[in-house]
Amino acid sequence: IDRALEAYRVSMEEKYDRDPVPPIPELPSTVRKYFFNILTTNYLFMKKCVQSNPVVPIQQQWLMSVLTLVPQSLMEGKDRELLTEKLLGEIIRDYEMSMKRCMVRNVLIKPDVKGLEDEEEAPLPLLPLGLDFSTPWHNSFIQAKNQMLSNLHILHPTMKTLLDFGCAAFSTFYIVDFSSFRLKGPVDCESLKTDVSLSCSKAEEKILNTWYQRVISLFTQENALKDVKLDQVDPFYNCVSMLMSNQLKELLRRTVEAFVKLFDPEDRNCLPLFQMELTLDENKMEFYPSFQDLEEAILFIVNRIGQTLQ
């Protein structure tokens, strides 16, 4: 036993007195550069091969759906068709580029080597977890639906009728008919302001005698407050008031936009004509009305439209 312990002690001393294992020598810089160049070249080559694969073209109805979101006023005017084609071409290019980048991300992993810092392709993010349907949801759905029907008053059938009244009354109606401005020929600023004021007054009277009367008759019917609880009457009428206000605001906004559209620099056929005079007073020649008078008349029209139905 003593000899065995002595032999074990000697072997352990030799083990710990042994020189440390030398570190793994680094590759020469030329070799590392060679391997990095191979990685970079291979990645760029495979990326080019993946991007050269055919891409499913974007569907035409998708482009048409995008165009339907553009206001009609932006689609009219000179050179607008060329601009639309240019924008659609840009959408198609972005779509194809996104599809190619997606294929590269799904197929390749970009190596972390020098020379590929500007490459945008990276692995796709993890897919989001799905919804958890492990617990019953039907009761909570019914509860949420009933709560919406009792508190979301815009879903009440009477509100739909009110919306129909507004669409029928205001869809093609304007506070001021600007289409006849050009036909009147040159007008002075005061006459123009007077005509606009009269048009606003007549439009306001027409709205109060037609649309407003239909709204009043609608809410005087017996079934107007059907299924509305007594403690929900005030919020219900607040919703009615807000809906009516939004309809009138939309009418005023469309009227102001129609007036602003008259001054489109690309379409001068609808510009109003102002009567101008060249005066000479005390050796001073100037135009009447002045630029400030014209500006005041134009701003007066906008303000007068905004004051209608207030």
Instruction: Enumerate how many helices there are, as a single number.
Output: 11
Spatial extent as radius of gyration = 38 Å
- H-E string: HHHHHHHHHHEEH
Overall helicity: 55-70%
Low-confidence stretches: none
- What is the total number of structural domains? 2
Principal-axis shape equals extended
GO molecular function, one term: dynein intermediate chain binding
GO cellular component, one term: dynein complex
Organism: Chroicocephalus maculipennis
Protein name: DYH12 protein
What report would you give on this structure?
The chain is mainly alpha-helical and 310 residues long. 59% of the residues lie in helices and 3% in strands. It has eleven helices and two strands. The chain has helices at residues 2-16, 29-51, 60-68, 72-75, 80-107, 138-151, 157-170, 189-209, 211-219, 233-261, 291-307, and strands spanning 277-281, 284-288. A two-stranded antiparallel sheet has the order 1-2. The radius of gyration is 38 Å and the shape is extended. InterPro entries: DHC (IPR026983). GO terms for molecular function: dynein intermediate chain binding; dynein light intermediate chain binding.
Keyphrases for this structure?
single chain; 310 residues; mainly alpha; two-stranded antiparallel ribbon; 59% helix; 3% strand; DYH12 protein; DHC; dynein intermediate chain binding
In short:
This protein is mostly helical.
Layout: helices, strands, pairs:
Layout: H1 2-16, H2 29-51, H3 60-68, H4 72-75, H5 80-107, H6 138-151, H7 157-170, H8 189-209, H9 211-219, H10 233-261, E1 277-281, E2 284-288, H11 291-307
Antiparallel strand pairs: 1-2
